[in-house]
Write a structure and sequence with these properties.
The protein is mostly beta strands and 129 residues long. It is 5% helix and 37% strand. The protein contains one helix and eight strands; from the N terminus they run E-E-E-E-E-E-E-E-H. Strands 1, 2, 3, 4 and 5 form a five-stranded antiparallel beta sheet that branches. Strands 6-7-8 form a three-stranded antiparallel beta sheet, with no helix packed on it. A hairpin with an 8-residue loop joins strand 3 and strand 4.
């Protein structure tokens, strides 16, 4: 569902899926495409208008990058699959675990969320589709 360059070695993982009433498939997922070192994460959203055959629109929902290894100091914990996404005919909303307030020496994870009023963006062609 990610639309970055195929075979580029960048990780996308922990998808969460919702289908809105019009039949569009919405997927939220962690993505490292913006980091050439494949370390820093963002939470992304993809939408399909053709029953998940293609996902022409991918957008970051988080407004900051973060390192998933910063979940808890002194552990090898991972961020886990603590994500969800929901959608109606106008808005998509997601929740994810985010470590933007952590560091190598002080792990810290928080829950973040975002909502995108996608139907208005589509009508105004803000996606360039």
């Amino acid at each position: 569902m990610n639309n970055d360059t195929e075979g580029n070695g960048v990780d996308q993982f922990f998808p969460a899926v919702a289908v809105s009433a019009e039949g569009w498939v919405h997927v939220g997922f962690y993505d490292r495409r913006e980091d050439p070192n494949d370390t820093m994460l963002e939470y992304w959203w993809a939408i399909s208008f053709d029953a998940a055959v293609s996902f022409p629109i991918n957008l970051p929902m988080s407004n900051a990058t973060f390192d998933g290894a910063w979940s808890r100091t002194g552990t090898n914990d991972f961020i886990g699959d603590y994500t969800t996404i929901t959608a109606d005919n106008e808005t998509v909303a997601a929740v994810w675990c985010d470590m933007r307030d952590g560091s190598d020496s002080a792990g810290n994870s928080n829950i973040y969320c975002a909502a995108v009023p996608y139907v208005h963006l589509l009508k105004d062609n803000h996606f360039g589709t």
